[in-house]
Design brief:
mainly alpha, MetI-like fold, 14 helices, globular
Length: 278
Amino acid sequence: MTNISGLSWLKVLLYVLLTLYAIITLIPFLWALSASFKPLTEIVSGEPNFLPKNFTLDNYRQIFLQEPLFWRWLLNSVVIAVSVTLLNLLLNSMAGYALARLRFVGKRFWFFLILAVLAVPAQITLIPTFLILKAIGWLNSYQGMIVPSMVNATFIFMMRQFFVNFPKELEEAAQLDGLNTFGIFRHIVLPLAKPALAAQAVFVFMGSWNNFLLPIVILFDPEMFTLPLGLNTFKGQYISYWNYIMAASMVFTLPALGIYAFFNRYFIQSVTFTGGKG
């Protein structure tokens, strides 16, 4: 009885700590949401009030109706993030399945090369990426933003670990039914890999949606800016329009929140691919 009581108190303490952590995490977001309805003078006054004293929708009117490039920035972000996500889902899954199931020359070499790539910080590859894109004329273009990001070593490894643990009996039964390797991958493996694909989609989309380093290196035409780069234009040398930045930031977070909410149900299922045999 004492052990059961002790476990109950530990569970209560855990929930209290998690609730406090959630509140602390939400405070900056709630302040930004409140600031998006405040005039600039109230934001820079420094008063720690969460509820706007002078509630206004002018910030949203400004970015939607008077900022001529905001809709273009939003379109650019959507096109790039969706394209990068779809290409990653396809190519990372194909590469992971090949490393897990197929036999080909140099398989171990490519696997260890992917592991080596995981140790290289993305910032190191920015200058080589810029030079390559400049040489082929892809600066300031959609393909320049999409192609360098269409595969990801982390998620190739993740998908490989998932497919290593995938039941071989299902594939063998599909082979007896006359399916070739591509047919097995398309009709058997991918439909059952929804948890892994959903988790990958969330992380890849959010990474591309929030990407600031690559756009600031290769994009120089304001019409090609993505939203993170576009928001930076509201900051000047002597004044920053934090009211517009906060309003645009709220719009900026909605797609990422929507993607996460839609795929959240798969997250618990997706923990099974974190480990695996080699």
